[in-house]
Design brief:
about 475 residues, alpha/beta, D-Maltodextrin-Binding Protein, domain 2, 2 domains, 5-stranded mixed sheet, 19 helices, 16 strands
Length: about 475
């Protein structure tokens, strides 16, 4: 009798133990592969520029609710230290899983990036059942965002920047692959001082470059010694104009200059069918504002930085991005400024200029599938509005443009997204930008323009 009771008790314990293992998704053979994968701690190291962790924290928290085994280590770096820190960390083997890149840098860092694969294998744990709760573990192989979705969901400039040819090995075919996805897309706009325009009798900012020239001329005050006491436009030079290379690129593209060919080779110095170099017209238009012999003269190299001149009320027009708005308010809280669309060539095709950052995955990451899964999650139409609201940036997604059209600071930038463009600056965007600035200096110095623009083109192509 005693033996029977002990055996029965042991049998009951055995059944209870097996039931517990079953609830844990293990079974008599131990934990399943799915359970092991879903329970394994994963830390994603994220490096970004300009944004604090607060901008992404709501999205990271939402991701952790789905994947409780994932943690994040977030680091914000200064833009001037980012490149050196990133390359050093990757070389030492302790770089980030996810890092931000300017859209112009993708070619430069392409060899360090693992492109988005066609599908991702991600483990999940979910509790099922009502009365009897059961944790079920699965590993799902999910298709990544398709090229079709990239083209239809994001604004056009994103596709042209992040889609790059990729060959996995010498025997594999060359295919277009996605090398990054953006949380936002910024673009150039026209900031103006409302008081200065009101005093000059201009009820609204210029919509065309012809109107811009006329207003800038009237808004410029020049003293007896040719000193500029009030500038109509901070434009025409290289070193003291914020994002001068972007502004010159914009003017070139607006007047029909083809910046690169289908291979990404710079051809902006190549004459058109009428043997005219269109880029030179844009160059001369830009530098005329710093030429004392021209009617539109309103700026020179002795002026302060264009941002400082605008915040101090010394210039009427300033060209900047959405991120400049809070900086202007911080520097000059009482400055009566507003934002307008970039002037366009009258009767021409609208072209705007994009400058933004994309999120990408390091080739050295040991958590590539999770890293890409999080990038797709954070840039999705469901999650990215949380980031945009905190960061105050223009959307990269077409479906969210209308929602920003009523925003005082973002409406102009949102309205320009569908016509925003960029151009491939080779494998060293810094050299390309330097080439554009050197071109401006050469034009102001009176150097041979055809030789100068050919030299600029060659500098860009030497990085390919």
């Amino acid at each position: 009798m005693t033996i029977f009771m002990i055996t029965r008790r042991n049998f009951t314990k055995l059944i209870a133990a097996l039931s517990l293992l079953s609830l844990l998704g293990a079974g008599c053979g131990g934990p399943s592969d799915a359970q092991i994968a879903a329970s394994k701690p994963v830390k994603l190291v994220v490096w970004r520029v300009f944004d604090t962790q607060d901008t992404l924290q709501p999205i990271m928290t939402a991701y952790q609710k789905i994947h409780p085994n994932v943690s994040f280590e977030y680091r914000e770096l200064r833009s001037d230290e980012f490149k050196n820190e990133l390359l050093r960390a990757l070389a030492e083997g302790n770089g980030p899983d996810i890092f931000s890149l300017n859209n112009a840098w993708i070619g430069e860092y392409q060899s360090l990036i693992t492109p988005l694969p066609a599908s991702l294998k991600i483990p999940y744990s979910e509790v099922r059942g009502t009365i009897k709760k059961e944790t079920v573990y699965t590993v799902k192989e999910q298709p990544s965002i398709s090229l079709r979705s990239l083209k239809t969901d994001f604004v056009d400039v994103v596709t042209s920047d992040v889609l790059r040819p990729f060959q996995e090995n010498a025997k594999a075919p060359v295919l277009d692959r996605i090398f990054g996805l953006p949380l936002a897309v910024d673009n150039l706009a026209l900031y103006y001082n409302k008081d200065l325009l009101n005093a000059a009798g201009f009820p609204e900012p210029p919509k065309t470059w012809t109107d811009f020239q006329a207003q800038a001329t009237k808004l410029t005050h020049i003293g007896a010694n040719n000193e500029i006491s009030q500038s109509g436009a901070a434009l025409g030079t290289s070193k003291n104009v914020e994002r001068a290379s972007d502004i010159l690129s914009l003017l070139m593209m607006q007047n029909g200059t083809q910046m690169t060919d289908e291979r990404g080779v710079a051809i902006f110095a190549v004459p058109d069918t009428s043997r005219k170099i269109m880029a030179l017209d844009a160059l001369n238009f830009y530098t005329d504002f710093a030429n004392p012999t021209k009617q539109v003269y309103s700026w020179n190299k002795t002026q302060p930085n264009s941002f400082d001149a605008f915040t101090s009320g010394k210039t009427a027009f300033f060209f900047g991005y959405s991120y400049h708005a809070p900086l202007i308010r911080a520097a000059a809280p009482k400055l009566p400024f507003a934002i307008a669309s970039i002037p366009q060539i009258e009767g021409g095709k609208n072209v705007n200029y994009a400058n933004y950052w994309v999120e990408t995955v390091s080739k050295a990451s040991t958590n590539q599938d999770f890293a890409w899964d999080f990038i797709q999650f954070e840039t999705s139409a469901e999650q990215v509005p949380q980031y945009l609201k905190i960061a105050r940036k223009p959307t990269a997604r077409r479906a969210l443009i209308n929602s920003q059209m009523q925003d005082e600071d973002l409406s102009i930038f949102a309205s320009q997204l569908l016509t925003a463009k960029s151009w491939y600056k080779g494998k060293n965007a810094t050299v390309a930008e330097s080439a554009m600035l050197d071109l401006i200096d050469s034009a102001l110095a009176g150097d041979d323009q055809q030789q100068s623009i050919q030299a600029a083109q060659n500098k860009v192509n030497q990085t390919l």
